[in-house]
Structures are given as structure tokens and as C-alpha cells.
Amino acid sequence: MAPTFTVRKSNDRGYANLGWLDTHHTFSFANYYDPKFDGFGSLRVLNEDRVEPGKGFGTHPHREYEIFSYVVSGDLEHKDSTGNHEVIHRGDVQFTTAGTGIAHSEYNGSKTKPVHFLQIWNMPYNRRLPPGYATGHFPDTTKQNRFATLIAPAEKRDHVDPGHADAEKPIAIHSDFWMSAALVDEGKTATYRTPKVVEGESETDHAAPRKLYLHVVQNNAKAKVTVKSQGAEATLTHGDGMFVTGFHDELVVANEASGVAEVVLIDLA
Q1: Which CATH number fits domain 4-268: 3.50.30.10, 3.40.190.10, 2.60.120.10, 2.40.50.100?
Q2: Element (H or E) spanning 234, and its range?
Q3: Residue 24 labeled ligand binder
Q4: So where does Fe cation get bound (predicted)?
Q5: Beta-strand pair 92-97/14-17
Q6: Which helix (H) or strand (E) holds 79?
Q7: What pLDDT score does 161 carry?
């Protein structure tokens, strides 16, 4: 049976421009509210943010959520109440487990150029987790015409084969949540399957249908991708997203326009 595709066009997202911050919201956030888009499975927030040089989000508290940033371009500076201080760059993922409580700030680490990143929030299965922090470095080479796994369930991430010599193990998250990214060259394809986990001589598969959210990063105005799975098909351009329900086989993403199409994919129970 074919999965169901529901496309969300870029211009249909929530939007705010605060001068220092230009942001699009896939789900209800801050002053944007749409009851049809309050979350998708455990996924609660996916904002596409651009922050002006030297500006950012001042220190503020969080609880329970796991919050992470995927840097598209520029430098993102992170500080938190547990003593972490780091500047991350293109392709890096900064990951915070808020748990019982943490305060952090996120600033543009450059005084001359903007930073563009995806800010994502997920609700873990486990409440009252201890606060935590991790960073993953995922070079573009690991994503070229393939989906690189960036985030994986904590109990499975050590058993995931990164599948590329330059790839790190994915960051651990506390739910059945996988995040991947691909850079699809003009005229090429990338195929996604929910990662299989190898433990000893046995291999775990995902028999139950899953949910996917696919996002075309808004960094190539000419981007146009065709997505196919089991007879379902849709076309997306830059900034568009797509909700997939009933996924159980593979998803093929083809770049049909000029330049590289960058896509981020979230796979949920």
C-alpha cells in the first residue's frame, strides 16, 4: 500500500521578521499558531532561522525537550548553564537535552555574515532526564547523493553503520526518532530507508509503518525535487516540506533542477 504524501509549501509556514531574526515555522511557535500544525508524532518544532551578525537568542531556560540545531551556513555560538561553550559550523549538529532544566543562549558567532540553521525540538519518551549536550560533525562528503544518519535512538545509535569513511556515529536521542540529511546533485537521486540496526548476528527491521517529515532546505532558489515511494509521488521546491504517513519501504529523492538540493529527513514511530 502506498504511503500518503501531504506537501506543505514554504509560503504556508508561519513567518516572522524581527530585524535581527528572519524565521519560518513549520509548527505552531511563539506568535504563530495553527491547530493543524501543532506537531507530528514526537516532533514539535522545526524552524528555519537566519540570524544577523552578532545577534541571537539570549540566555533562556528549557525543560524536558531535546533541542538541536543543524547549521546550513555561517557560525552558531552556543553557551549553556552546564558550562558548554562552542561555535559550530556548516553541517554540524548541536544537541541539547533539556531534561530537568537547562539554560542556554544561541548567537551568530560571526560579526560579518548571517547564520542560517534549522532549529528542531523533539519530546523524548523519558521525562526528567539529566541535562546533556552533544555535537556531531557531518561533512558534506558524507551526504553526497545519500542520506547520512545524524541522530538515532540512544539504545540503537552504537549499532548503526555510518556507511561512509568520513561519517561519525549519530547523536543519541531519547525516542524512536531518526534524523538524516542528503545533498542531491543535479540529475542524481538519494534513497532513504529507515536504518537497520545490527546487533551480533541479528538485524532489526522496522515492520510497522512509520511517519516521515522531509524538508527542502531554503538555500537554493532553483531547487526542485521529485519524491517517490511505492507509487506515491510529489514535487517540492526550496523551503517546502512534506509529511509522509504509512511509510514502510523506501523513499527516492531526485533533484530535477540546477544546483545541489539539500534535504533533511526526520523518521518517527
Answers
A1: 2.60.120.10
A2: strand 232-237
A3: no
A4: 60, 62, 104, 106
A5: unpaired
A6: strand 76-80
A7: 85
Which residues have a Cβ under 8 Å from the Cβ of 200 and sit 6 or more positions away?
Answer: none
For residue 113, what are the CA distances in angstroms to 20, 23, 54, 91, 151? 12, 16, 9, 17, 28
d(C-alpha 182, C-alpha 153), whole Å: 19
What residue spans define the domains of the chain?
Answer: 4-268
Question: DSSP secondary-structure letter at 194?
Answer: P
104 annotated to bind ligand = yes
What nine digits make up the cell of 143? 551526504
The answer to whether the beta carbons of residues 179 and 267 sit under 8 Å apart is yes
CA distance 51 to 56: 6
Contacts of 215 (CB under 8 A, 6+ apart): 26, 46, 48, 118, 240, 241, 263, 264, 265, 266
H runs (alpha helix) in the chain: none
Are 215 and 186 in contact by the 8 Å Cβ rule? The answer is no
Q: Which residues contact 12 (CB under 8 A, 6 or more apart)?
A: none
d(CA 265, CA 146): 12
Tens of pLDDT, residue by residue over 112-157, are 999 999 999 999 999 999 999 999 999 999 999 999 999 999 999 9
Does 60 belong to an annotated binding site?
yes
Rounded distance between C-alpha atoms, residue 11 and residue 52, angstroms: 21
